[in-house]
Each structure stands twice: as structure tokens, then as C-alpha cells.
Write a structure and sequence with these properties.
The protein contains 15 helices and 13 strands. The chain is α/β, with parallel strands linked by helices. The chain starts with a helix and ends with a strand.
């Protein structure tokens, strides 16, 4: 998602220098962005565990990254330094090395304190894993709050996240930026009796929180859907051992690994379900479903950040039992399903333009720079981006 935002910011007139490890740099060039690759790779997990910072931050902070930043920082003046996600928060300890007295912008993808707290409280995890999750939660809570308080501007992907960050960083402006969408838009679709009686769940199930969410859903949904003869199609990358465990446990669920083209899988389901109680933030898959004309059912909390007009065209329930009953009530009503997907598409059609996000961020950076650096006349020419 950050690449999209960086591209949108460049489209709004910023000249961007993007810094990251080789694996984090996209293979294709993007207009307005100069790429600088940090030599080497992040630290190993064991070295990261010994740090007072969260694992992702400890792994990214290497001597090679420090050297690259120091070299680029001296090439200013810089108008802004944009720090992508909490794993790069350690850059804020290096403020003094950047020429031009830039403003520091913290781009958040989630309220990680909330996410890691939910992971730690997950009673299904083993004792050893909970000990690890508990220490990571404490590190994340401290570090994320510190980053927000030491930034000049914080962007969030939902208004709810903005309120959470604002409570611990009073006086720091919060800019909610719901992600844009530039993917496939299906012109038309008709759901009929021939469409399989199936619901689809797309995702990447490598992260422990995603795995926990999937198991929570399947534990409750599988017996209900199996009795009703509704298939649950889980599409997305997951570890082989995790997949084997799931396949031996559930009756209604069918598992497909990573797919290059999601379109056939979306077209072969009557509905999509988003039920992820662990973790907040904005669910990009919601836009994939809406613009591929798949009716959406989900937990209310999972629709956070969507405009009310789009939420109104989804089946949203606060708890899992109500959600499952709503799905079973709707899945055999093709007319209602088609009306739902048509109205959702129309409601979302003009609401997720990346160009708008780029202009909003560009304007917010300029405004913040004017407020904090009133005597500085340096042109708004470059954004140093640490990822």
C-alpha cells in the first residue's frame, strides 16, 4: 500500500527519494521516485529479540541502513522525511542528521498496539508463544507511542485509528487517509442459481494474527455451513503444515493456496466473508470484493474506514453468530445478492482515488512545514522516505 501512496504523493508534485532493502523496492520504476537500495538485508530474528524495540524495528535497524541514511541526509535540504510503519521508527532518533530542518511524517498501516495486544490475549496460543507475544506487545506499545509523539504529522487509515493515536500523542496532527483502489473493476455480473453455493475468504495466512482469525472463523462457521450445504472457500498463501492441520479439521472448508488471478475464484462464489476479530485497520480485500461485484458479509468492526454509503450495502453484524445467520438467509436469494453487489459498486465507484490521497498528504505536509518552520524558504522539492 505504501508504494501506492508514494506514487500518489509524487503525482501531487513531490520529488521522492525512497530508501529500502532490495526486497522492498518494486521491480518497475515509478515516475517521480528515485530508489536507493540499502546493502544487505534485515537482521535475523534472534538478534531482533534481544532489542528493546519490537522485532520488525530491531531487524530493520542495521549499520548499513544507518550509513545509507547518513549519506542521503547530507544531500538535502529535505522538506520532509516520511517514515513508513512503526518498524522504521528508529529513524526519528536521527533527526539531526537531515539537512533542511524537515518535518517528520509517520505513515501507519494499523494501530499496532491494539493488534499486538489482541494477539497476546489470544488464549488459543501456546504458553511459549503467548510469552513471546506478551513481550512484543509491551515493546510495540512503548515504541509506537514514542514514534507518534516524536512525529510532526501522523497518517492513519481509519478515523478510529486516528483517535487511538491522538489519545497518546496530544498536539500531533492526525490525517486519516483511507487507501485508494486502482485494481480490477468488473463491469457487470449476474449471480444466479448456477453460481455455486459458496462463500470466499481471500487473504495471506503467513502472519500469526491472520491464522488465528481464520481458525476463530472456521471453528464457528464450519459446522453451521456444513449443515446448510454451503462451501467455505479459503484462497491465499499459507504454510503447508498449517494447511494440513485445517484440512484435517473442517468439513465445509476448501483450501486453495496462492493464486495469480483471483477473478475466477471471486466469480465462483455467491458471497465474500470478512470476519477478523483480531486486528484493526482498513481491510483492502473489501475493495477487491466490491469492485469484483461480490456481495460482502462481515463483522461490523472489519468495515472500519469505509464510507457509510458503502457499509450500508454490506451485511454487517457485530457478532459471529448473527453474521453466519445473515449469510445463510441471503445466500439463496440471487435477486437480493445482485442488488447488493450493484449498489455497493455504485457507492464505492468514486470514493477511492489514490490521486486524492496524494494531494491530501502533500497539502498536509506543506501546511505542517509552514506551521513549524515559518522562516524557512526552501522549496517543496523532495521527500526522503525511509522504509
Amino acid at each position: 500500500m505504501f508504494f501506492k501512496l508514494a506514487g500518489a504523493l509524487a503525482g501531487a508534485g513531490a520529488d521522492i527519494t525512497f530508501v529500502g532493502y532490495a526486497a522492498e523496492v518494486p521491480p518497475q520504476p515509478m515516475p517521480g521516485i528515485t530508489w536507493h537500495t540499502v546493502p544487505g538485508a534485515p537482521r535475523g530474528r534472534l538478534a531482533g529479540l534481544a532489542s528493546p524495540m519490537p522485532l520488525v524495528a530491531a531487524r530493520h535497524e542495521t549499520p548499513a541502513y544507518h550509513a545509507t541514511l547518513k549519506e542521503l541526509a547530507a544531500q538535502g535540504p529535505w522538506d520532509a522525511v516520511v517514515v513508513d510503519q512503526y518498524g522504521m521508527g528508529w529513524v526519528l532518533r536521527q533527526k539531526e542528521i537531515f539537512q533542511g530542518d524537515p518535518v517528520f511524517v509517520f505513515i501507519t498501516h494499523d494501530h499496532e498496539e491494539s493488534v499486538t495486544g489482541m494477539q497476546w490475549r489470544d488464549n488459543t496460543a501456546s504458553v511459549g508463544k503467548r510469552l513471546y507475544l506478551g513481550q512484543n506487545y509491551l515493546k510495540t506499545r512503548w515504541f509506537e507511542r514514542w514514534i507518534a509523539r516524536n512525529s510532526d504529522l501522523v497518517t492513519t487509515i481509519t478515523q478510529h485509528d486516528a483517535e487511538l493515536f491522538g489519545a497518546n500523542a496530544p498536539g500531533v496532527p492526525m490525517l486519516p487517509l483511507v487507501p485508494g483502489y486502482d485494481g480490477v473493476r468488473v463491469a457487470e455480473r449476474t449471480i444466479g442459481p448456477e453460481t455455486p453455493r459458496a462463500v470466499v475468504l481471500f487473504g495471506s495466512y503467513r502472519w500469526s494474527a491472520k491464522q488465528a482469525n481464520l481458525k476463530i472463523f472456521l471453528d464457528q462457521a464450519d459446522p453451521v455451513m456444513a449443515r446448510a450445504g454451503v462451501e467455505i472457500r479459503v484462497v491465499g498463501d499459507m504454510p503447508a503444515d498449517f494447511r494440513r492441520t485445517l484440512e484435517g479439521r473442517y468439513k465445509a472448508a476448501r483450501f486453495t493456496g496462492f493464486v495469480d488471478d483471483p477473478a475466477p475464484h471471486l466469480a465462483a462464489a455467491r458471497m465474500a466473508v470478512v470476519a477478523e476479530p483480531i486486528g484493526g485497520g482498513f481491510k483492502m480485500k473489501l475493495l477487491e470484493y466490491v469492485f469484483n461485484r461480490v456481495p460482502v458479509a462481515g463483522l461490523t468492526v472489519c468495515a472500519s474506514g469505509l464510507p457509510d454509503s458503502v457499509q450500508a450495502e454490506m451485511l454487517l453484524e457485530p457478532e459471529m453468530p448473527g453474521l453466519l445467520q445473515a449469510v445463510l438467509k441471503r445466500i439463496d436469494d440471487p435477486a437480493a445478492l445482485n442488488l447488493q453487489q450493484q449498489r455497493a459498486f455504485i457507492a464505492a465507484e468514486h470514493a477511492f482515488d489514490w490521486r486524492d490521497r496524494g494531494r491530501l498528504l502533500c497539502d498536509a505536509i506543506q501546511e505542517r512545514r509552514g506551521a513549524l518552520r515559518p522562516g524557512v524558504e526552501a522549496p517543496y522539492a523532495a521527500v526522503g522516505t525511509a522504509v
